[in-house]
Amino acid sequence: MQATILNGALPGDSFVDAVGAALQAALQAEGWTVTSWTLRDEKVAYCLGCFECWTKTPGVCRIDDTGRAVAASLISSDLAIYLTPITFGGYSSALKKAVDRAICLVSPFFTRIDGEVHHHARYARYPALAGVGVLPAPHAAQEQIFHTLLGRNAINLHAPTHNSVVLYRDQAPAAATLRNVYAFSGRVAA
Amino acid sequence: MTTPQTALLLVGSAKPAGESSSEALGTYLLERLATRGITTETYHVARALRTEARTQELLQAVDRAAIFILAFPLYVDSLPYLAIEALERIAAHRQAQGSPAPAAFLAIANCGFPESHHNDPALAICEQFAAAAGFAWAGGLALGAGGAVNGQPLAKAGGMLHNVVAALDQAAAALVADEPVPAETTALMAHPFIPTRAYMLMGGLGWLLQARQNRVLTRLGARPLT
Are B78 and A47 an interchain contact pair (Cβ–Cβ within 8 Å)? Predict the structure, then answer.
């Protein structure tokens, strides 16, 4: 089973980095092969909104940098984990830069999912999607936004299943909490 | 003599200046504010974040503004990376000030899906930014089928966008009165101006035409990353 962790920690955020390392170790201990990207250290340009990955070089971004490798890592995985400090309820800029570059994984054409318009799948299978958001302290509104955003991303990425967890900086995550991040995907990967 | 208020538009699209629907929407609103005596200025996130000096210019522009407007395209259910980084920098800047100058913040989101509610998480994020950065939340305007604007100035837009124009007129009036945008205005902006089925059909044809021009029509469904 293959997992990809996109670590959206901003510079100096040792807590989120530690969560990422703990998640990787926990997954590996259970037999997963893990690719972890510390995005702030990677050369990932921002999405230009040109749509050439849909209409000129179908399925590949025109920008030849690590953003391509991150997208390939996502689509090759059974599980994708978005790890981020929660930023106004959403993802950090570091994580969002990579997520934006992954639109090449879907088709430009529209379809309906549960009555809503979304983009067609490009690939036959997609990873289960997990979100791990980190807050300084409980914040009901931002936590709700984070869970909603992760769920909406799961629909648009055609993830077969998804889960999201919020951690607080004053609590080192327990093993059971970490396992809760990815255990839901076991049925998918099996 | 009273110094006129300043309104700042930050365009959250990565497209070149003058080409994005976000800029078209925000510029129309700025024009309406200008007719009411408001001084206006416009920044683009791609340019403003390119160097530290330009980012400082943006932060100073935010400090000058009594009305701060962010217009952006929806990228993957949220704001584009560039807009998020700009908001991170602005929030940190204002938090460091302790008691930043009072100002209103309005967000305008447009998405490529026909349903405007795809923008809801992004606008909820904007509202949280306003609270974190000490702005008065003036509201969020959500537009579906944003591709139909196609970067064209709204002042020249046809009747199809009359609801959009009317909503921005109302938003300008609210901002000048130092009031949040009324619920009727957000509803007017969000009202579909093109049937969903027609938009899906036109959108699909548009992609096919572009692919044909690029000679990749038979490769549109390629799966190159596996």
Answer: no
Interface touch B76/A142, C-beta < 8 Å: no
- B chain contacts of residue A48, beta-carbon cutoff 8 Å: 14-15
Number of domains in chain B: 2
The Cα of B94 is separated from the nearest Cα of chain A by a number of Å equal to 15
> CB within 8 A of A52, min separation 6: which ones?
A61, A62
Domain span at residue B29 reads: 6-194
- Whether B166 and B209 map to the same domain: the answer is no
Query: Which residue type is seen at B61?
Result: A
DSSP one-letter code for A171: S
Same domain, B28 and B113: yes
B100 assigned to some structural domain: yes
Say if pTM beats, i.e. exceeds, 0.80.
Answer: yes
Does residue A161 sit at the B interface (CB-CB below 8 Å)? no
**Alpha carbons A54 and A104: distance in angstroms, whole number:** 7
Taking an 8 Å cut-off on Cβ atoms, the answer to whether B216 and A96 are in contact is no
Mind listing the pLDDT tens digit for each residue in A51-68? 999 999 999 999 999 999
Count of the separate structural domains present in chain A: 1
CA–CA dist A14, A40 (Å, integer): 13
Q: Where in the sequence is the domain holding A78, given as residue range(s)?
A: 2-189
Note whether B186 and B204 are same-domain residues.
no
Tens of pLDDT, residue by residue over A111-141, are 999 999 999 999 999 999 999 999 999 999 9
